[in-house]
Design brief:
heterodimer; A: 78% helix; B: 6 helices; 0% strand
Chain lengths: 100, 164
């Protein structure tokens, strides 16, 4: 049986990769995908830690996280589509309106 | 045997995310992410969580990523991304990632050192369903409201015509 620590380390690695991807990439869509990677790393950590406790609560939390991620994806993509319509670009380099 | 499956799936998952960081094509990024989420679904199955595994593959690798692909098609970005110029940002992100990884592994080590290897989680879906409609009833209902709000919000945001 694989120890929970192995799953947890994988989750930590995935989360860190998501953070790095968020900061390295420069288009809104890929940054948004990086957020999804982070959410999934959180899911993996929940499941890895709930199995040794012998309770199915981890799966319930994962269900809620997936639902919230779906809602977030819908709203986020709608906002990105709006930004693209107005600015004709989703590169963060081109979106400096708040910089003053 | 379980270790082989675990290592294969985790390699696929991490490799797909790394490929997403390296690649500059957004459609390729989305497909890499589908691969990563599908292998994560397999990992969930390995963790005795069949419901989470099914939801992961159906909702994440299926629905959400198809949504991303539709969005990418709407953007219709023909020219490829120009190469990244700022090295400083990459170095800073790598440093931040390294510190974060250390911190997370430390936290996980602390959290898991007290845990027993213990009994495997309840496999039966009936238990999970009962849990969802008793202990997590409020969260469940609020989630349905959230979905409705997201639906209406997306319509209000993106459903407008150009001239409005």
């Amino acid at each position: 049986m694989i120890p929970p620590a192995a799953f947890f380390i994988l989750a930590a690695l995935l989360f860190v990769l998501g953070v790095v991807a968020f900061f390295v990439k420069k288009d809104l869509l890929t940054q948004f995908m990086a957020v999804e990677v982070m959410l999934n790393a959180g899911n993996l950590a929940f499941l890895a830690l709930s199995r040794p406790a012998g309770r199915p609560d981890g799966q319930a939390v994962v269900l809620f996280v997936i639902t919230v991620a779906a809602a977030e994806a819908v709203i986020g993509l709608a906002i990105i589509v709006l930004v693209f319509r107005q600015r004709k670009s989703i590169r963060t380099d081109d979106l400096k309106g708040l910089k003053g | 045997m379980a270790w082989i499956v675990f290592l294969t799936l985790s390699f696929l998952c991490v490799g797909a995310v790394v490929a997403m960081i390296v690649s500059r094509n957004q459609a390729h990024n989305a497909l890499f992410l589908v691969l990563a989420f599908a292998s994560l679904g397999g990992l969930f199955g390995l963790l005795d969580a069949p419901f989470a595994a099914a939801a992961q593959v159906l909702v994440y690798a299926g629905a959400i990523m198809v949504l991303f692909l539709f969005a990418i098609m709407m953007f219709n970005l023909r020219r490829p991304e120009p190469p990244e110029k700022k090295r400083l940002r990459t170095v800073l992100a790598a440093g931040l990632g390294f510190v974060l990884l250390l911190e997370l592994v430390l936290a996980g080590y602390r959290a898991l050192s007290g845990a027993s290897a213990g009994v495997p989680a309840g496999r039966d879906l009936a238990h999970l369903g009962r849990l969802l409609f008793t202990d997590y009833l409020y969260a469940f209902e609020i989630t349905s409201l959230l979905i409705l709000a997201a639906l209406v919000g997306a319509l209000a945001l993106a459903g407008k015509r150009e001239g409005d």
